[in-house]
Amino acid sequence: MFSDFPLLSLIIWLPIFGGVAVLINGDNNPWARPLSLLVSAVTFVASLGLYVGFDNTTYQMQFVEQAPWIASFDINYFLGIDGFSMPLIILTSFSTLLVVVAGWEVIKDRVSHYMAAFLIMEGLMIAVFSALDAILFYVFFEAMLIPLFLVIGIWGGPNRVYATIKFFLYTLFGSVFLLLALLYLRHVSGSFSILAFHDVSLSMAQQTLLFLAFLISFAVKIPMWPVHTWLPDAHVEAPTGGSVILAAITLKIGGYGLLRFALPITPDASMALDWFVITLSLIGIVYIGFVALVQSDLKKLIAYSSIAHMGFVTLGLFIVFRIFANSATGSGAELAIEGAMVQMISHGFIAAAMFLSVGVLYDRMHTREISAYGGVINTMPVFGGFAVFFAMANAGLPGTSGFVGEFMVILAAFQADFWFAFLAATTLILGAAYTLWMIKRVMFGEVANDQVAQLTDINQREFIILASLAVIVLAIGLWPAPLTDFMHSSVEHLLTQISQSKL
Amino acid sequence: MMFEVSNMSFALPEIFMLVMACVILLVLAIRGDKGINSIYVLSQISLIATALIIYQSIGSGSGLSFDGTYIKDTLSNVLKLAICLINVFVLLYASSYLKARSLFKGEFYVLALFSTLGMMIMASAYHFLTLYLGLELMSLCLYAMVAMQRDSAVATEAAMKYFILGALASGMLLYGMSIIYGVTGSLAIADIAQALQTQEIDQTVLSFGLVFLLIGIGFKLGAVPFHMWLPDVYHGAPTAMTLFIATAPKIAAFAMAIRLLVDGLGEGQAYWQDMAIMLSVLSMIIGNVVAIAQTNLKRMLAYSTISHVGFILLGVLSGTAQGYSAAMFYVLVYSLMSLGGFGMIILMSRQGFEADNIDDFKGLSQRSPWFALMMLILMFSMAGIPPLAGFYAKFAVINSVVEVGLVPIAIVAVVMSVIGAFYYLRVIKVMYFDKPSDQNILQAPKDMQIAISVNALLVLALGVSPGALMAICAITFS
After folding, report:
1. CB atoms closer than 10 angstroms to residue A200
2. Global pTM?
C-alpha cells in the first residue's frame, strides 16, 4: 500500500522544510517550539510507516524512488531502504523528537535556530541512510556537518569553538577521501549507483586503496581509535541535544558506511586487512575502557564509553572474515553482523539516554564534574532510578538492550578466535567498572553539598523522555527478535556478497 | 577580405556595448558629475540590453566571422552572458560603496563598460591579435580603476604594482604568441590548430612558446608562481574595484586560456599539461595555506581566489571535454561566490569604515541574522561543502582529473580543500560564535540588500539543483 507513495522523500523533506519554516518564523514568535514539535512528531509517525510497510522476506531495496538529478553526470535522486537502514531511520526520527522535547525549556537563546538546526539535521541524516546514489549520499553526508557545527559552536560550552572546528575538520578530512573513492568507482563502474558499485569487479590493488579510503572516512565518523580524539571534545562542549544526536546517530553513520560501502564493495581487501580493523577495534574496546575509567567529567566519560561500545560494532563487522576462514559454513557470521547492528541501535538509545540524564543534571547544577555531585538520589529519587537503570544498560546488564548486542558479538568472536572474545569480554568488566563507579560517585552516598541538597526531581517532560527510552531499552533487551527479523534477509545478502571474491 | 553585413551580426553585442560606452562618455563630457545618476542607470541598461542581445542571438547561427578573427559559439555566448550579468551586480554593489566615499563619478562607469567590452572581445577572439586587443582593453581600464582613489597611497601603490606586473605579463604573452607565429606561420587560432595537426613543427620551439603563453595566462588568472600582484591589488584597491577585478575578468581569463590552450594548441597538450599541473598544484597549496594566516578579509579572499584558480586549472589540465566543462562550471560558480563575498564586505562597510577585517564580522548573526546566513552560505560554498554550488564545482573538476587517471593530483586537491575549509570556518566562527563588538546596524541601501540576498540564494539554488548549469557547460564542449 505504500509502494507508490514517496514516503522516504516525505520524511526527508518534511523536517528540512519544517526547519526552514521554524527559522523564518524567528525567535520572537512563540510558535518556534510547538511547530518544531509538530514537525518532528509527524516525521516520527511517518517513519513508522516504513516499519509497517516493510517486507522482511527480501533483501531488495524497498520504498525505492528514482528520478534524474544531475543529468550530465548521471547522478540520480535514488532512494531506498533495506533491513540495515530502516531501524536507523526510525532511531533518527525518534531521537530528534526527544531532542526537541529535551530542549523545550532549556534553550533560551536563539530557540528557532536551535530547533531548525536539529530538524534540518534530521532530514539530512535520514537522507544519508536512504540514499542509494553515491553522490546523493555524499552530499547529505557532508551537509550534515553544517548544522552540527553551528549547534556545537553556538550553544556549546566554554571551549566550543575549538571543539567544533576540530570536529568539522576531522570529519571533513575523512570524508574527502570517500569522495575520491566514489569518483574512482564511478570511473570503473560507469555509474554512481551504490548497488552498481556492489557488482563491479576490482583488482586487489584497487580494492585496497578504496578500502583504505572508506576506512579513513568512516573510522573518523565512528570514531575508531586512534582518530577518536575529536569526539570527547565535541561531546563535552556540545549542548545536550547535540550530544544526543552525535552519539545516537552520526556515529552510526560510520558503522552504516562500512556496511554499505566497505564490506560489499571491497570484500577481498576487507578480508586481507581485517586484522588491522580488528586490532584497532580491540584497542578501542580495552584501552578506551581504561581511559573512561579516569575521567572526571561526566560527558567525557560517556563519550569514551561510546567509543568503546562502537568498537564492538567494527569488531562484529570484521570478525566475519575470520569466522569464514575457520569454518566453511560460516556459522556465527550472521550473529556477528546482526550483533553489530543491534549494538548500533541499542547504543543509539542508551547513549541518548545517558546524555539526556547528564543534561538533566547539568541544567540544574551547570557543572559536569563528577566531584561536584554526590548523593543525588536522595534529592532526585525518580531521576536516580532512571540513571541507575541506564547505567546498568550501558554496562551491559542482561535484560537491557546493551547486553544483547555485546553478547552476540562476543559469542560470534569465539567462532573467530578465543582471544578476540576474551579481550572483547573485558569490556563487560571495564564497562561495569567505569559506569558503576561514576554512578556511585554521583548518585549514592551522603548529599555532597548545598547545591545537591537543593536539587528538584525531574519534571513531567523529563520523565516522559527518560521513561520512553527506558521502555525501549528494556524491550529490545528482553525481546530483540523483531529487530533482528528485519535485518535477517539483508544480513544474509551481505554475507553472500562478502564471501564472493571480486578479483 | 570579405566584409559582409551578415558577419557583423556576430559582433552585435560588442558593437552595441561600444556605442553605449561612447554615449555614456558623451553624457559625462556634457553634464559632468551632475549627470552621475543617469550615467549609472544608462550603464545598467546597456549591460542588461547587451545581455538580452546575446541571449537573443543564441541559436541564430554560429561560426567564424571577420576573416576568421572572431568566433560566435556556445562558449562565447555563455561566457559573455555571464560577464554582463555578473557586472550588473558588480555595478550595483559598487555604486553603494562609491556613493558613501565621494568616488561616485562617471569615469568609473565608462571604465567599467569599456573593460566589459574588452572581456567580451576576449571571450569571442579567435585570433592572437584580437585576443590581445581584448585583453589590453580590459586590463588598461582595470589599472585606471584601481588608481581612481588617487589620494589613497595604498590604492596608488596597488595600481602601480598591478600595472607593472600586468604589463610584464602582457609582454610575456606577446612573446609567446610571436614564437607560436614563428613555428606555425599564423596568428589565427583555427590556422594554428590546423598547422599543428598537419605540419612538421619544431617541438622545442613550440614548447618554448607555450611556456610564455602559459606565463601570460597564469598572470591574468593569478596562478602561483605568478600570483604576487593579486593579494596586494585586492587588498589595496578600494573594495568596489576589488569586486570588479575579482569577478568577471576571471571569466575572461578562463576564455583566453581555453582559446589559446585548447582551441589553438590542443595538439600541444602533452607540453602544457605538465606546466598546468605545476601551476594548479602550487596555486592550491600556496593559496590555501597562506590564506590561513590572513586577518584581512580582502586579503584572505585574494588567497582564496588563488586556490580557486588552482582548482579551475585542474579542469583545464585534464585535457578532456568533461574537464573543460567542469572548469567552466567552476569559473562561473567562482565568480558568483566571489561577487557575493566582496559584496558582503561592501554591505558591511559604511562611510569611514571599510569592514575588511575578519573581526569586523564579529557577532553578525546577532546584529543581522539574515545577512550572517547569506555570508554563511557563501563561505561554506567557497569551502566546497554540499549542498552548495561550490561543492559541485570542486566535485566536477576533481572528477575530471580522476577520469584521466591523475589520482595523486586529486588527492592533493581534496587535502587542500580541507585545509581551505579552516579559514572559511573562521569567518563563520567570528559571525556566529563571537559576541558583536559594535552594534551598528547595516546602512546599505535596500537594492543592495536585495541583490546580495539574491546572489547568495543563487549559490544555494545552484547547489540544490546544479543540473541545468552543468548541462549548459557540458553542451559547450561536446
Report:
1. 15
2. 0.90
